[in-house]
Amino acid sequence: MRLVKLIHVAAPVALLIALASSGTALAADAGTKQSHVTAVGLHNTYDKAAYPYLADALDTGTGLIELDIWVFAGAAKWRVSHDLPLVSMSNNCMSGGLRGGNSNQVFGKCLDNLKAWHDQHPGHRPITVKIEMKNGFNVQAGASAGDFDNLIRT
Question: Which three-class secondary structure state does DSSP give residue 118?
Fold first, then answer.
């Protein structure tokens, strides 16, 4: 399982994913509600100009990162990029681990990077991942909300 907890919020194109951990003083108290927590967040965390690797952004100690996703038909239907990525994506998610391989990967590789970082940092503070669905879901392209749920749980 890639992520520990999925929280759907009211807006249909906004999802929050929380990577939870426990066991150290850095982790939130188990009784703390998310609605009672504040955190510093990073806008457009996938931007290579700000962070060459997604892991670099996570290493800052941020409590929230943001990934913009575009949905299209085809093999690369969950594309991570700020601008409309018709030809190519632009992001700091890596194909070969946290700081190896190639950048400009699909959302699934970003999730793999998040899981790898999470596994390498036991006891880290909870991290909320804000997903901005730039053009919404696309059922005809095999990219429904249910498909998204399946993607983050594989």
Answer: helix
- Give the whole-angstrom CA distance, residue 29 versus residue 104: 36
Q: What are the structure tokens assigned to 44, written together?
A: 């457009």
Q: Cα-flanking dihedrals φ and ψ of residue 147, to 5°?
A: -65, -40
The structure tokens listed for 125 are: 């503070």
Provide φ and ψ at 116, rounded to 5°. -65, -45
Nearest Cα residue to 54 out of 22, 96, 7, 1: 96
Which has the closest alpha carbon to 113: 19, 13, 26, 15? Answer: 19
To 5 degrees, how large is the angle CA 144–CA 57–CA 111?
30
Nearby residues of 141 by Cβ (< 8 Å), 6 or more positions away: 71, 72, 73, 74, 77
- Find out whether 60 and 42 touch, Cβ atoms under 8 Å: yes
pLDDT in tens, 44-91: 999 999 999 999 999 999 989 999 998 887 767 889 999 877 777 899
| Sequence-separated contacts (24+) of 3-9 with Cβ below 8 Å | 3/111, 3/114, 3/115, 3/129, 3/152, 3/153, 6/149, 6/152, 6/153, 7/34
Residue whose entry in the numeric block shows the structure tokens 């700020």: 82
